[in-house]
# Entry
Amino acid sequence: MSYEARSAPLIEMRGIVKTYNIGKENELEILHGIDLTVHAGEFVAIVGESGSGKSTLMNIIGALDKPTQGCYLLDGIDVRRAGRDEMSEVRNRKIGFVFQNFNLIRRTTAQKNVELPMLYAGAGSRRREQRARELLDLVGMETRRLHQPNELSGGQKQRVAIARSLVNDPAILLADEPTGALDSETSRTVMDIFHRLHRDQGKTIVLITHSQDLAAECPRIVKLKDGRVAADQRKESFHAGA
Ligand code: ADP
Ligand code: MG
# Structure
């Protein structure tokens, strides 16, 4: 059975255009009309050369930025029409972000880093601590939970960042080159965590990578070329069991 038959899409983009520096001399159209539909439970790799527009697209998917033209429904919410507050609320509730450079807060523990998005969401301290411990355990970082980022390796920092991305139980995990700063062995550990979250928890994952090898592990690969979707391939075998 296809994804289309099972669920309404989480991400539905039609004709997404992104132009930077509108009206200025250096105006530049970067995305030229992207159509992309992602359903709950999918694991999609977005690949493409440096400069092809992957991060620009990720910022729009994650409601960090608005498209210049086109329609984007994020779990049914029209992101283009949403106000600033509604955007940040949608973001906090629906999306877990993982970045290449981890974006952890220095001089505070792994535990507190993971708790932070829950603090913003208004959760009490016991609940926050319990949830953070649970997630640090899930990524194999429970023994390091009181360490600060500068006492952790790159792979460990990324595992903490993944735990943090999950804390509000988002519908979608969005990861922009999450293994870009990691060696191949550490990348493996991080990829295994994403596969596990997809397989065991049914998480919807959009993973941006310029590694063809890592993309090849994913059930669906969307290839960007110069701001357009050049290919969108699914592995049918993953479909049946997903
Ligand atoms: P990728 O992530 O695939 O490497 P990006 O989405 O970061 O690509 O960038 C695509 C293009 O958009 C690049 O040419 C980049 O210089 C340009 N770009 C990205 N962000 C901005 C911005 N804020 N203002 C102007 N141009 C930008
Ligand atoms: Mg990028």
User: Anything to note?
Assistant: The beta strands are 9-20, 28-39, 43-47, 69-74, 77-78, 95-99, 172-176, 204-208, 220-225, 228-234. The radius of gyration is 18 Å.
